[in-house]
Amino acid sequence: MNYTFHWYQAFQALPELLWGALVTVEVAVLSMVIGIACGVLLALGRNSKNKLLYGASTAWVEGARNTPALFQIYMAYFGLGSLGVFVDSFPALLIGISFNNAGYLAETFRGGLRAVPATQMRAARSLGMSAPMAFRLIVLPQLFRTVFHPMMNQMVWAILMTSLGVIVGVNTDLAGVTQELNVRTFRTFEYFAMAAAIYYLITKLVTLSARGIAVRLFRY
Amino acid sequence: MEGSDFGLQELLLMLVGAGVTLQITFYAVLGGTLMGLVFGVVRAAAPWWINWPLGGILDVFRSVPLLIQLVLVNSFKSILNLNVSAFAVSCVVLALYTSSYCSEIVRAGVQAVPQTTRRAARSLGLTYWQDLREIVFPIALRVSLPSWIGLTLGVMKDSALVWWIGVVELLRTSQVIITRIQEPLLVLSVCGLIYFVLSYPISRLGARLESKWRDLD
């Protein structure tokens, strides 16, 4: 082995990498918020009787689930440009991941809606609750319980997917910062090993806190 | 299409790229499934001092972005001065990645077989391996196959990342063609369509199997 590792140099870049990690988490959270909002609408669209709504939401969901996430980011970055909408690499990344999240979450929500028996709603109504009240107090808590774990899984996926931004030129998130440092110094292995460790810690933090939240929320 | 430079030659190039995608997927899923079977069966049965370290190592492959894994292994290969192609590196990384998910699927399948069924098999005189082969495997397969199909499709989609370390597959081919004929939307649509055609029928099949077997229980 004809190679000397320069770990010290890599450790000196730790603050930069951690700032990148913050951006990664921000993008992931933002894409989840957009993804949940779109996912709920898509789930409703998939259940609707309106042909157009059903068709459009099915196309979105199946498109998101049957093509690579990187392809979806490419579509936002290169594809939208042909339509005259020029997006920078960062919004392209956000659009791509949100599109993907929405597609997967829509199916999660649809499954969740099916898991709450229709009799629950009827029982609540016959006890005198108004429809919105019954939805908020009876259906939503039960729905949340079934979709919580898949949602947290999707959150981890979103964090991992943000690393694809570097391919379309995002240089502020963790993978992007790492790549910048790599190009500057050619210490590929050291920097990417550091990045891998940080990604690991972030995803572990998310899964562990999700487990903690689940224990508190769903204890009865 | 009129006035477009996208012709038969470009389409053929993309189909060749799709072939590379499928090849990588095949090797990765083959290796990953074999490893995943072993890891999964071990994880379902082993004592905690084997289970925890093995589970921890496999968990790393699920917690670090695939792109980072690819770059890491590829650069480590260069550090060791190994003369291995980027194609082989991609297959190995993707196989490990697959095995990590597959081991969880196999474990869930094995654990879905009730202990009493296995004890009954053993008390009827079946050996450990016979029990595994004749009793556990058929029951676990029903639980695991739909997820395994999903995993295979996931690996095919994730294999799009390997161009970053220099393997020319479907997505990379599309990018090369875009650079040449400057019609990104058209080329990407064709590329997406190819992925969709490869993935959608099999995903439908998986969903069908899942609901069919659920109804049987």
Keywords:
heterodimer, A: 220 residues, mainly alpha, MetI-like fold, flat, B: 217 residues, 8 helices
Task: Give the helices and strands, then pairings.
The complex is a heterodimer of chains A (220) and B (217).
Chain A: H1 7-12, H2 14-47, H3 51-66, H4 69-82, H5 89-115, H6 118-126, H7 131-162, H8 174-185, H9 188-217
Helix pairs in contact in A: 2-3, 2-5, 2-7, 2-8, 2-9, 3-5, 4-5, 5-7, 6-7, 7-9, 8-9
Chain B: H1 8-45, H2 48-63, H3 66-79, H4 86-111, H5 115-123, H6 128-158, H7 170-181, H8 184-216
Level of helix content of chain A? Answer: over 70%
The mean pLDDT of chain A is 91
CATH class categorisation of chain B: Mainly Alpha
- Counting DSSP H or I runs of 4 or more residues, the number of helices of chain B is 8
Q: What is the SS-derived class of chain A?
A: mainly alpha
Low-confidence stretches of chain B: none
| β-strand number of chain A | 0
- Helix-and-strand structural type of chain B: mainly alpha
Oligomer: heterodimer
The biggest beta sheet of chain A is recorded as: none
- Under CATH, the topology of chain B is which? MetI-like fold
CATH architectural group of chain A:
Orthogonal Bundle
